[in-house]
Amino acid sequence: MKELKPQVKVGILGGGQLARMLALQGLKLGLDVHVLSARSDDPAAQVVRHWTQGNVESSADLKKFFGKVEIATFESEFLNVDLLSKATPRGRLEPKPKLMGLLQDRLTQKQLLAEHKIPTADFMAVETEADLLKAWSLFDGRLILKKRRFGYDGYGTFKLTHPSEVSKLVKLIENEPSGFIAEALIDFDRELAFMIARSRSSDIATLPLVETHQENSRCLWVKGPSRNPKAKQLMKRFAHVLKKIDYVGVMGVELFETAKGLMVNELAPRVHNSAHYSLDALGCDQFTLHWLCLLGQNLPKTAALRAPGFAMWNLLGSCEREPSWNLGDENLNFHWYGKSENRPGRKMGHLTALGSTPEKALASIRKSRKSFAL
Amino acid sequence: MKELKPQVKVGILGGGQLARMLALQGLKLGLDVHVLSARSDDPAAQVVRHWTQGNVESSADLKKFFGKVEIATFESEFLNVDLLSKATPRGRLEPKPKLMGLLQDRLTQKQLLAEHKIPTADFMAVETEADLLKAWSLFDGRLILKKRRFGYDGYGTFKLTHPSEVSKLVKLIENEPSGFIAEALIDFDRELAFMIARSRSSDIATLPLVETHQENSRCLWVKGPSRNPKAKQLMKRFAHVLKKIDYVGVMGVELFETAKGLMVNELAPRVHNSAHYSLDALGCDQFTLHWLCLLGQNLPKTAALRAPGFAMWNLLGSCEREPSWNLGDENLNFHWYGKSENRPGRKMGHLTALGSTPEKALASIRKSRKSFAL
User: For B48-99, where are the E strands, in sequence order?
Assistant: First the structure.
């Protein structure tokens, strides 16, 4: 384990809410946090003294930024990996650009899972009409088609269960340079998730299993801790994978709970919405944990729960009015990202609550969330 | 209760660690936090985008700063009240300049307590040698002499129990323009403290009673919650006082636990070291609570404890070496203020821990604090 000096110069590529919360928790630790983002009103740009205006896809801006920081990370894995690799001094970005490349592509991500015998939906690459027809047949007319790169919150994802949908997608497929992946549609009971973290010092930590609830392909709420008899074994397998690929930082693992057991849906090589609850419900939150990983510190051995149950609710934009709220009446924790526009479905902030059970924590948010008008 | 719009422009006068933690918790709430301080490496200057270089004792700098913010607060009550009153637009600073004046002066502070029949040590103003001799006689040769203004952490405070000490202090008394107060020396079993908060909406909240431990006149650790049969009644009396003087914000109340009951030692009209534990041990911390007060929000009705016991340990500078630490091994929360110089006794950061009892929480800090070398 590395002995730390105060005020390590750390950098974040990107200025959204994940970058903002990384910045705030880094500042709490006394880190000298730098942010590279496009606009001075970006959520993360508002909370640091050391903001660099620039484009995370510009080689010149990246080089300038890496000249200021000792170690950096990113809030989105959908960057130009070639450009990033060339602009990043060796060992100065975690997770490494190579791993960003591996994990930003849903095909190579799936191949990584398959290689390590981690249960996941059957899949195949789709580049042509013939591939799509083959997938249709292989997966018995029940499949999900996803862009290999740059998809999120349902964008770039298509569910196919009727032949007419197949023909509609042919044009799209042939015009998409990065290609598609087809996956067998999974019947699941619940969606679950957990975070796993690996430090530069090789230490591993996992955060509790949680249940996530999506509406319109966007996460609306999370509650936990959840239980599944196979979770512990799966976490162990991921610890092995992270070591094998020399992954440093936190990773979000999204799961389906099915009659046949847990199946991995997607991986996010970064801090993740499903673990925002950790800011208020755990002894060590995901953002702090990510910094500990990058700084080569040991990780807290147990995720100290501050209550038997917790829940998180995303405050999504409506565009109907200027947001407003009444705080304080209830024992909720309120986090606001400072976004300048209230767009429909946009993640504007979140609420967390603790309770004697996950359900009670969630119920207490449901009861009070009307105090938050978006 | 006021309905809040996002990104209210709030200001903090001063740039130390109290301002830094106010800023960080304000940013979490989505407030647009501005800081006025002298140096860009001040602890609070490092964590906000909107930093104004200036002097909190300069009328021009204050006026410039109040032009940028809708409401402001301060981290130290020892400002020039006349100058502040003139430079502050009406209703724009809380607690109000008038109350800063009342509470920064230990004599008028004591008079306020006496007026409301709140138990405190007997006292008298001391401006001359004759006053001091009268106090010596009145308090039976056992007294504390304090500067009326600008004393802190034992600075400006003198314990007198031997006649030779009296004669030594005569010169000092006659050269101090703001005068002194003499207080009867109190025999106490423990030092305790609590925070009370009053919102612009008139709502009141109190945080748990805690035990504080001083070494060399500086707070070393705090543990809680503590019990005292008279605490509830005293808190109620303070609620009445705060309403009476139209106080808005949090107030730290330092107490002596004596054989004759609780006696108030000092009041701090601001966030206070004795409640730093609240960042990790309560559902709503003292910094967030202070903002809720200023914004006219209702206050959480109960201080939701995240564990049956908690403790806080100040990381004090030694000047012996460059600080370093190993995080993560234990379930401690680490807060670092980013001060540029490691001076002996200086508050550089703090640790908090939760536990099944206050004593166990404190013991877990004692066990691990050697990982933090200052």
Answer: 50-53, 71-74
Encode burial over B28-61: b for 16+ CB neighbours within 10 A, e otherwise. Answer: bbbbbbbbbbbeeebbbbbbbbbbbebebebeeb
pLDDT confidence of residue A2:
62
Range with the poorest average pLDDT among A32-36, A321-325, B123-127, B163-167: A321-325
Residue given tokens 């996941």 in the structure block: A120
Are the CB atoms for B10 and B71 separated by under 8 Å? yes
pTM (two decimals): 0.95
pLDDT in tens, B44-91: 999 999 999 999 999 999 999 999 999 999 999 999 999 999 999 999
| CB < 8 Å from B in window 4-63 of A | 4-7, 24, 27-30, 32, 40, 45-49, 51
Residue A330 pLDDT greater than 90, yes or no: no
Interface test with B, best of A299, A327, A341, A371 (most B CBs within 10 A): A327
Closest CA relative to residue B204, chosen from B137, B293, B138 = B293
Residues A183-199 as b or e (16 or more Cβ within 10 Å = b)? bbbeebeebbbbbbbbb
Mean pLDDT of A7-14: 96
Contacts of A51 in chain B (CB under 8 A): 49
- Chain A residues with CB-CB distance to B295 below 8 A: 327
What interface predicted TM-score (ipTM) does this complex get? 0.93
Q: What six digits make up the tokens of A177?
A: 């340079």
Between residues 267 and 286 of chain B, which touch chain A (CB distance below 8 Å)?
283-284
